[in-house]
Design a protein that fits this description.
Blueprint: H1 2-17, H2 26-38, H3 42-60, H4 63-82, H5 93-113, H6 121-132, H7 136-154, H8 157-179, E1 184-190, H9 194-205, E2 210-215, E3 222-231, H10 235-245, E4 250-256
Antiparallel strand pairs: 1-3, 1-4, 2-3
Length: 268
Amino acid sequence: MIIIGVAFMAVSLNIFLVPNRIAAGGVSGLGVILLYLINVPVGVTILAANLPLMLITWWVIGFKFVVNSVIGALLLSLFVEALSFLQPITGDLLLASIYGGILMGIGTGIVFRAQASTGGTALAARLINHYFGFTIGQSFLFIDFFIIFLALVFFNPEVALYALLSLFVASKVTDLVQEGFAFSKAALIISPQSRQIAGRVLEEMGRGATVLKAEGAFTGEEKEVVLVVMSQGEVSRLKALVYDIDPRAFVVISNASEVLGEGFRLRT
């Protein structure tokens, strides 16, 4: 899994990001900048930046946090250089930033799903969190925006804006890969006929239903709330079923980006 993820990241860098000078945050973004400034290979920068970060993090935080990053960082450095023969597909900055971000996000998501990382930004963010008290998320943003600022200084504002776009795309795709592509919906139904609704959901939709005890904040009246999780295509059927029983039912339907368990994806 880690090898597949790292391969996606290396391909993204070699055919989209590096040839178009798109430094989309992180150590790899720093590598893009240094390649054009002083001709240091991106893989060398990734390895050179990660080694001291690993040692410092090991000393300050502990070995357990570092161990999952070692393999990813070494493989990424190796793959970036091994695949450097790949030719760029496009010189269009918009296409390069979008598709580079997509491939980078797929690779990062796969690595994260393997409960690993490629070091770099993750290690630096943990150190910033330890010494300065910023959250991990804030630290990630600070580092990535700093790299993009360097791209603005050493390249030009247009390239920096495309780097920001690529970072955004990669972030969204990473979340998508981690959470899965099968989106589900969760419905909360408040109705005096809650038991009847739950029964028909079981019989007609073949879905489980959970009846929760609740209390109205204003009236103090005890109520029952029916929780139903379903596929996106079953939403219309559920609404028709509910309003056939109680036209005045209060229904809230929200996205459930990941559902694990019987009837859905089993945890692996």
